[in-house]
Design brief:
The chain is of the alpha/beta class. Helix content is 36%, strand content 15%. The structure holds N-carbamoyl-L-aspartate. N-carbamoyl-L-aspartate (NCD) binds next to helix 2 and helix 6.
């Protein structure tokens, strides 16, 4: 496998292999010296056309902790602002012989466009509303650690599913790994292509979260909202927000996830976000381990994974 563009690129066995490799790297972050020589001499470029905190930082740190040379292309201060095309930008980067380029772009399909035109490996760090495969892998890793398994769990993905690349990649990966997935959202936030996924669809929160093992809350994607699809954020938070009242309708041991960044008080209440049921920071911690594992699998050729 040369690129990771969507969850469709990997089989269930390959996904489990990535999660198992991530376990070894998870331990590296707890060592006093958090550096391994695995990617010495390799070059990783972060090419982010959209804002990011978690994904960009964790890819950067993952590369650095593995001794790769990591460059963060700051699109805002690059020649993109002078009008340079995506094609010319990536061909320019290619001439410097990077091994892996991590791409985030507002246009669905941009990583695929790049991957078919360059020699380096491309990892998709989120493209438009299409896919965010590394987020799905880190969510699966978090879930497997918290619950000991993924097979047989029921996961309710709640909120702005229509515009969520996180929801699409999670639906594909979790079902591939044997979980049952529900899409729970008001009709205006459900994707037109729900039937393309092996999911149950609920338009009411109460029924949607009844009996589930995990609720995955999603951010309202203001930047992708063409016109207002919600009467008001207050109304949305009252009817679909994951707060204590909503959780009282779920199983007592139901856990809560959110990919971040959170709109506290909109799709998730501060009490829930900061409660022991919340896996939000576990997801961030997992992100680093999973991205180290991915860099290792894509560029580590022959190097040993750290012993656990
Ligand atoms: C997500 C993204 O960018 O798709 N963030 C992330 O990578 N953790 C979710 C979001 O922006 O809402």
């Amino acid at each position: 496998m040369k690129h990771l563009l969507t969850i469709d690129d990997i089989s269930a066995d390959e996904a489990i292999g990535i999660l198992d490799t991530s376990e070894a790297f998870f331990e590296v972050a707890k060592r006093p010296v958090k550096k391994v020589p695995t990617l010495r001499g390799k070059t990783v470029i972060n090419l982010f056309y959209e804002n990011s905190t978690r994904t960009r930082t964790s890819f950067e740190l993952a590369g650095k902790r593995m001794s790769a040379d990591v460059i963060n292309m700051s699109v805002a201060s690059s020649s993109v602002k002078k009008g340079e095309s995506l094609y010319d930008t990536v061909k320019t980067l290619e001439a410097m012989h990077p091994d892996i380029v991590i791409v985030r772009h507002g246009a669905s399909g941009a990583p695929q466009y790049i991957a078919s035109r360059v020699a380096f490996s491309v990892i998709n760090a989120g493209d438009g509303t299409h896919a965010h495969p590394t987020q799905a892998l880190l969510d699966a890793f978090t879930l497997r650690r918290a619950r000991g398994r993924i097979d047989g769990l029921t996961v309710a993905i709640c909120g702005d599913i229509a515009r969520s690349r996180v929801a699409r990649s999670n639906a594909l990966l979790l079902t591939k790994l044997g979980a049952k997935v529900r899409f729970v959202a008001p009709r205006t936030l459900l994707p037109a292509d729900s039937s393309a996924y092996d999911v149950e669809v609920y338009e009411e929160l109460e029924a949607g979260i009844a009996g589930v093992d995990v609720i995955m809350a999603l951010r309202i994607q203001h930047e992708r909202l063409a016109g207002s699809l919600l009467p008001s954020l207050r109304e949305y938070s009252r009817t679909f927000g994951i707060n204590d009242a909503a959780l009282s309708l779920a199983d007592p041991d139901c856990l809560v996830m959110h990919p971040g960044p959170m709109n506290r008080g909109v799709e998730i209440s501060p009490e829930v976000a900061d409660s022991p049921r919340s896996l939000v920071l576990n997801q961030v911690e997992a992100g680093l381990a999973v991205r180290m594992a991915l860099l290792y699998l894509f560029a580590g050729e022959g190097a040993d994974a750290p012993a656990d």
